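Here is an idea for our session: we take a single protein and study its fold together. To get us started, please write out a protein record for me. Once you have written the record down, we can walk along the chain together.
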Amino acid sequence: MLDGARFPREKVCGDYIEPRGLRVLEMMGCLKTLEQTFLLPTTKSSTYVDGRRCYNGRIPFYGVHKHLPKHGYIVPRDVLDNVILQTAVRAGATVHMETYVTGFSVTRSGVTVEARHHGQSIRYHGRMIVGADGVNSTVARTAGLFVDDPRYIALSQRAYADGHEGEIGEAAFFFDRDFFPGYGWMFPMGQGRVNLGVGMLKETCQRNGFAVPQLFCDYFEKLKRTHPRCKSLQLSRPPIGRIVKTYGCSGPNYFDKGLLIGDAGCFVDPMTGEGITPAMESALIAAYIILDLLPKGLVDTKALSVYETEFRKYFDPSMIFLDLCAAILRDPHYWGSWKQALVRGCMLAQRDSKFAATVGACFGGLEINPSRIMAGMWVKVAESFFGTGPTGLLERRDSTINGDSLSFQEMADWMSESYLSLFKDPFWHFGWMLDGQLKWIRSLSIMNAGMPDQRIKGVRESSP
């Protein structure tokens, strides 16, 4: 194993590990070691929209599946990655730190990897190579699989801060006009420390000239003003930036005598930008394939193409729908409409735990069922529009929503935003619409095929 860093080392990340990731860490024998660092379990969440808290309660899809933990953990990457590394060493891995890979070449017998260590050039020889070297993957570049599409790239800044009041494992998410499409987060880690940050789509930053460092500064000040337990936060060190590439731009991720996993292969949730669990899952899929093919000497492109077949079977049922959702949200002109929908969705989720677990799964859920999500949304829309059912009755009772009149107003607002988007950049607008339609067709094909979300079972149970 070759790595350019010396461990333990810091890595820019939200540090959040959800229940499916904890399951993998337990399989690896890492979880007990991590829990000895006195981690704060995350069981609750809150959602803020333009500074107003619209949802506050338990995470609705945690504790539903008995075979998964009922919580998540915030684990700094200098701790997490070092524990994983030491576990790999105990399992027999040979590790070369401060060894930066500069490229590789394919030979008849395998691959030759070029690297630099303390200014010296070194070569390593092996039968195949696995690129786990992140979003700027040298392995992907050398293999001709590197992608750089701003539609699927998020730019972010993250920092640690101290001064959070109360030992409460409540993840907070912030949606705001100033960083849409994107969001801010605040994850309590215990002992008054939090992981906080903000991310936005690269395409939007380029088109509108946004600077992520300034977005972070603005977000940090808003966080201290709006969150009741964050008013005394102080950054422990300056924020650090990173980029993530989401599943929407994932390619075949295999080549002659090699595979790509993790961020190098774009295994990242398109809606949340979460990549720790998908990275580990992609590594497991790759491991099972390597263990099967390598002893047989089958490491050419044709043999390794089974990797794409398997990871598509595993990830596509959930990730394709999430990619569709992310694509629809790409146009910032629709913030007004999406804000109304988000506020209403949070209000319904606060009242209806089943709705929260089903539809809320679009953002960090453990099991994605597109058909149920769409059905749940349309039922609530119909109830609101016609003023029937518990949703419509509650809205009329609370005088918060005026049933059909508001629905017509929302449609008028949507049309107005569409005309504005079309007027400002007609070519981009038509491209965005076409992209959404193509993703919708692809998502429908998966729904019609009845492909279930394999990620809830895990890689071992889902593998043939």
The longest helix spans residues 306-328. The chain has three domains: 16-40+62-146+249-319, 150-245, 331-424. The first strand starts at residue 16 and ends at 17.
